[in-house]
């Protein structure tokens, strides 16, 4: 039966969690009420099950996860007289089909919820079995006491006692056997005979020691010897037996010592509860809880158990871990469908399993297209390298799906080291980081973990997660670098450069956090904040000094990222900022990198054209770092060309590189013919500034004039120019 997903159920069901919980309890009561020996009505029985359903629901969502509640629910079913064999199987069926659907956490991945549900079933079955066993053992003890009393009663009550004992002996639901102290089986009931195959002569007349089994715990026979010597009254153990046909019978065994009237040991009484089916169920539930349903590989749960066991071994133990992620698997899912993607994962799992066949090696699927392989041994570095190479080799052979050959590539991060130095979470995190480093290097390769690279990645992650709160807390500030007229050296304007005053890392430049803001989308609100601050500062300067040395207000330059260019609110945001501040559009210049406009279509250029038509200057920043398509300049709505510093570095030497001079001269000539002003970045020497002025460049910025600084310093420079 196909069970609808939790998300689909939530969409179709507007009721709250309590209503869904009651539905689950209703389904549960309908399933087991017919096989329950109870005087309650079905409605009363349903109300009795509701608290148990709530305990299962709470356990499914509990953090940290704990199966104790499910264990208690299993025991509660026995106490409610749900002891028919069908009651357990029907309960497990209802939990498997409906618990996640009606009680699962919608925020949690379905695969994790199903794994939790499987573990809860396992605990519920264990609690049910334990309670049933305790109830049975209590009955068994009563039987044992009755047997002993029957043997020691007075002669006048012998017949009645014998009759009662025989009734209990023959009608008991558990197997009962009586043997002498030498181990000869004297009496067995029909239940015990059926448990061993139905032939009494295969049981009666045998010796107890003939029922030894290779999986017997050593202490079982030690306890037995103590009992027949009279040193203990009884013992309990889980013990397997061989049936006559060679199959294995698993039992909960209780052996009690029967004494005569003088207290001397005389017989031994064995009570056996058949637990074979329950054990098989537990094994199945354990397998389902620890293995991936799609590929059959060990899942995350079993892998972590194995990894933690490895890391907890002695200091001499070494290990190697490969963390594999398939390159481009999402494209395969999107193009061929998830069914084809699942078949591809099954094929990949089979190939990976063929790579890890040596002792101490295992492969597991963590989820999606992520797999791990673990190896242990004295030469783990060589072994894990060989294992990674084998994995990449088997991936090189294309996979055929529906007549198509699919090429598969993978990126592998490797962590190798000594047990006890890292926790399992730290090992997996390092392997994950290293895998992404291999993917960033082009994929289809493996990389070994590097502590420094891990630290950088962790720092980047920390900065990424801290960005939103940093903007809210006001941790960003702006420095201003003057733009200078090359003709007379006067201040023409300034470029606004954002900085982050991080509480732990100090002041960070834009190269440390702008790419992260681009990746997370925070660049849009951050860029809007920078524009507001810079425009407000420019308006303040204009109020203090209405006109600069050339008879016009100081201009403020603000950078736009590629993501901001694609944002539909760019024009509206810019207009709103200008109107609120009262700054003239002509006093604002928006800088766009050349690479962001390579191949730009008219839809991308339209917002820039609208801003240019309003009077806002558009500067093409870092010109020369992209394709430098000079012919493309004619269609771009730019009014300023900012030459990248790489063009002018050769001018810092004496004599200047003649090739650089010719290139700059040609660009300046072309820009002026297109009515574009030319700004040069990275001016660091007076000779460099003089050459650029001679070549016709209009404005410049760089450390030769001033480093980026607070707004009051630029205001002071502009006042000095005005004087």
Question: Which helices and strands, and how do they pair?
Answer:
Elements lengths: L5 H7 L4 H16 L9 H20 L6 H12 L5 H19 L6 H43 L5 H14 L3 E6 L4 E4 L1 H6 L22 H11 L5 E9 L5 E12 L5 E10 L1 H15 L9 H12 L6 E10 L1 H8 L1 H18 L6 E6 L2 E7 L3 H17 L2 E3 L2 E3 L2 E10 L5 H17 L4 E4 L2 H23 L2 E10 L5 E12 L3 E3 L1 H11 L2 H22 L10 E6 L1 H5 L3 H12 L6 E6 L8 H13 L2 E7 L16 E4 L14 H16 L3 E4 L5 H9 L4 E2 L10 H12 L1
Parallel strand pairs: 11-12, 14-16, 16-17, 17-18, 18-19, 19-20, 20-21
Antiparallel strand pairs: 1-2, 1-5, 3-4, 4-5, 6-8, 6-11, 7-8, 9-10, 13-14, 13-21, 14-15
Helix pairs in contact: 2-3, 2-5, 3-4, 3-6, 4-6, 5-6, 6-7, 6-10, 12-13, 13-14, 16-17, 18-20
Describe this structure in words.
This protein is of the alpha/beta class and 723 residues long. Helices cover 50% and strands 19% of the residues. It has 24 helices and 21 strands. The strands form four sheets. Strands 13-14-16-17-18-19-20-21 form an eight-stranded mixed β-barrel, surrounded by five helices. It has a five-stranded antiparallel sheet with strand order 2-1-5-4-3, with helices on both faces. A hairpin with a 5-residue loop joins strand 13 (476-485) and strand 14. Helix 5 (85-103) runs antiparallel to helix 6 (110-152) and helix 16 crosses helix 17 (510-520). The longest helix has 43 residues, at 110-152. The chain is elongated, with a radius of gyration of 40 Å. It starts with 5 loop residues before the first helix and ends with a helix.
């Amino acid at each position: 039966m196909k069970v609808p997903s939790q998300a689909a159920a939530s969409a179709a069901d507007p009721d709250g969690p309590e209503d869904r919980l009651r539905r689950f309890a209703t389904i549960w009561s309908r399933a087991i009420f017919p096989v329950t020996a109870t005087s309650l009505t079905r409605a009363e029985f349903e109300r009795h099950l509701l608290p148990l359903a709530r305990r299962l629901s709470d356990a499914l969502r509990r953090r940290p996860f704990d199966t104790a509640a499910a264990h208690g629910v299993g025991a509660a079913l026995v106490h409610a007289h749900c002891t028919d064999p069908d009651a357990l199987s029907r309960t497990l069926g209802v939990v498997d089909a409906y618990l996640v659907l009606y009680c699962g956490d919608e925020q949690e991945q379905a695969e994790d919820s199903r794994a939790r549900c499987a573990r809860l079933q396992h605990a519920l079955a264990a609690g049910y079995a334990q309670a049933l066993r305790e109830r049975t053992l209590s009955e068994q003890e009563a039987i044992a006491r009755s047997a002993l009393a029957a043997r020691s009663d007075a002669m006048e009550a012998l017949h009645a006692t014998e009759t009662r004992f025989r009734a209990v002996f023959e009608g008991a639901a558990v197997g009962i056997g009586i043997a002498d102290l030498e181990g000869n089986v004297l009496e067995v009931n029909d239940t015990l005979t059926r448990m061993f195959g139905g032939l009494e002569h295969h049981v009666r007349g045998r010796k107890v020691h003939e029922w030894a089994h290779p999986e017997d715990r050593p202490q079982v026979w030690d306890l037995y010897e103590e009992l027949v010597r009279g040193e203990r009254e009884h013992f309990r153990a889980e013990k397997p037996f061989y049936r006559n046909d060679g199959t294995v019978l698993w039992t909960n065994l209780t052996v009690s010592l029967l004494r005569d009237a003088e207290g001397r040991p005389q017989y031994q009484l064995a009570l056996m509860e058949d637990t074979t089916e329950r054990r098989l169920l537990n094994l199945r539930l354990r397998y389902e809880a620890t293995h991936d349903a799609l590929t059959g590989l060990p899942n995350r749960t079993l892998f972590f158990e194995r990894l933690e066991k490895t890391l907890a071994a002695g200091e001499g133990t070494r290990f190697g871990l490969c963390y594999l992620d398939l390159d481009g698997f999402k494209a395969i899912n999107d193009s061929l469908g998830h069914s084809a993607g699942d078949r591809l994962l099954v094929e990949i799992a089979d190939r990976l399993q063929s790579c890890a066949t040596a002792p101490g090696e295992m492969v597991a699927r963590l989820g999606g297209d992520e797999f791990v392989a673990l190896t242990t041994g004295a030469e783990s570095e060589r072994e894990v390298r060989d294992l990674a190479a084998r994995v990449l080799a088997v991936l090189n052979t294309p996979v055929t799906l529906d007549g198509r050959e699919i090429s598969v590539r993978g990126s592998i991060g490797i962590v190798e080291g000594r047990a006890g130095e890292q926790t399992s979470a730290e090992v997996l995190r390092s392997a994950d980081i290293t895998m992404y480093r291999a993917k960033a290097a082009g994929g289809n390769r493996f990389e070994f973990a590097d502590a420094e690279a891990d630290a950088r990645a962790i720092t980047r992650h920390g900065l990424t997660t801290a960005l939103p709160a940093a903007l809210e807390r006001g941790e960003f500030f702006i420095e201003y670098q003057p733009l200078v007229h090359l003709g007379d050296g006067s201040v023409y304007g300034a470029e606004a450069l954002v900085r982050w005053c991080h509480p732990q890392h100090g002041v960070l430049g834009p190269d440390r956090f702008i790419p992260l803001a681009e990746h997370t989308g925070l660049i849009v609100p951050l860029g809007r904040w920078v524009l507001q601050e810079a425009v407000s500062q420019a308006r303040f300067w204009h109020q203090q000094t209405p006109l600069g040395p050339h008879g016009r207000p100081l201009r403020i330059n603000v950078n736009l990222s590629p993501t901001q260019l694609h944002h539909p609110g760019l024009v509206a945001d810019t207009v709103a900022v200008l109107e609120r501040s009262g700054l003239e559009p002509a006093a604002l210049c928006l800088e766009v990198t050349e690479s962001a406009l390579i191949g730009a279509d008219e839809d991308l250029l339209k917002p820039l054209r609208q801003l240019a038509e309003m009077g806002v200057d558009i500067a093409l920043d870092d010109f020369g770092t992209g394709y430098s398509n000079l012919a493309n300049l004619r269609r771009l709505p730019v009014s300023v060309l900012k030459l990248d510093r790489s063009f002018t570095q050769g001018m810092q030497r004496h004599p200047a590189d003649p090739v650089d001079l010719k290139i700059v001269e040609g660009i300046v000539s072309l820009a002026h013919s297109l009515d574009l002003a030319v700004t040069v970045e990275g001016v660091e020497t007076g000779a460099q500034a003089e050459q650029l002025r001679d070549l016709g460049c209009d404005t410049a910025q760089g450390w030769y004039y001033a480093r980026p600084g607070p707004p009051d310093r630029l205001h002071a420079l502009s006042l000095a120019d005005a004087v």
